[in-house]
């Protein structure tokens, strides 16, 4: 589904279910690179959910792409299935749940889980997220298959790009449960530019299920915060404010 770069569109109460032929995106809002302001009558996406696998072996590179400025996203759940039909590292393939390119975008109640690269990539300026919940992918087969750079273990749940000035995040939690019987690590749960234009508040990570989980998250945000591994299972490791 594609939404034009116009004022006032309301999307509410939909489920997007990926098909077996890969889609570049399940829902695209606005036109990439647009400078149009919708501040007076923004586009909104509410109570809208995305499913990759679980019923069939669906595939989609991205679930929700927000290009339009001033978009409001409320109660969004993007899910690459970890159980059901058509589930597997090479079956229900999906890179990223939410890709934000527009400026002045606000998300409230954002859930993005099990995607195979960054769960969320935020490129737009003046972005805000209030509440975020995520689980990293369960089924990573080995560390070599999950590296965001040759020297960076895994993928952050949220990557705020260097050009995304004035991003602010509040109440953001990320959980790990790598269940393939081998140690898989993410260097950090949140990857943000190291400048005062980005403010992060009340972050946490948790290692789940010491009987079956391996690996974990080594830092909360960039190189700050402690690790969540089998050494401290089911315990929230927190960063109250960053930087």
Helix/strand layout:
Layout (H helix, E strand, L loop, with lengths): L1 E2 L6 E3 L2 E3 L5 E7 L14 E9 L7 E7 L5 E9 L15 E5 L5 E8 L6 E3 L5 E8 L11 E3 L2 E2 L4 E3 L7 E9 L8 E2 L3 E2 L7 E9 L8 E2 L10 E2 L7 E6 L1
Parallel strand pairs: 1-4, 2-5, 3-5, 4-6, 5-7, 6-8, 7-9, 8-10, 9-11, 10-14, 11-15, 14-17, 15-18, 16-19
Antiparallel strand pairs: 12-13, 18-21, 19-20
What does this structure look like?
- With 243 residues, the protein is mainly beta.
- The protein has two domains: 1-116, no CATH class; 137-148 and 156-243, no CATH class.
- It has no helices and 21 strands.
- A hairpin with a 2-residue loop joins strand 12 and strand 13 (152-153).
- The radius of gyration is 17 Å and the shape is globular.
- The N and C termini lie far apart (38 Å).
- The model has no long low-confidence stretch (mean pLDDT 97).
């Amino acid at each position: 589904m594609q939404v034009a770069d116009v004022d006032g569109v309301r999307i509410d109460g939909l489920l997007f279910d990926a098909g077996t032929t890969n889609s570049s995106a399940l829902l695209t809002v606005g036109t990439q690179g647009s400078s149009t302001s919708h501040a007076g009558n923004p586009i909104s996406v509410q109570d809208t959910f995305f499913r990759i696998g679980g019923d069939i072996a669906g595939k989609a590179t991205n679930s929700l792409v927000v290009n339009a400025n001033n978009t409001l996203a409320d109660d969004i759940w993007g899910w690459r299935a970890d159980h059901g039909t058509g589930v597997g590292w090479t079956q229900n393939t999906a890179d990223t749940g939410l890709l934000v390119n527009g400026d002045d975008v606000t998300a409230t109640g954002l859930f993005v889980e099990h995607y195979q690269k960054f769960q969320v990539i935020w490129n737009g300026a003046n972005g805000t997220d209030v509440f975020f919940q995520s689980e990293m992918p369960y089924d990573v087969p080995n560390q070599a298959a999950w590296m965001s750079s040759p020297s960076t273990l895994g993928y952050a749940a949220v990557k705020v790009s260097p050009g995304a000035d004035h991003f602010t995040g509040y109440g953001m939690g990320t959980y790990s449960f790598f269940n393939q019987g081998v140690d898989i690590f993410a260097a950090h749960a949140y990857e943000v530019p190291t400048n005062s234009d980005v403010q992060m508040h009340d972050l946490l990570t948790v290692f789940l299920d010491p009987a079956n989980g391996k690996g974990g998250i080594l830092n909360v945000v960039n190189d700050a915060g402690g690790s969540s591994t089998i050494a401290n299972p089911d315990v929230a490791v927190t960063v109250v404010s960053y930087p």
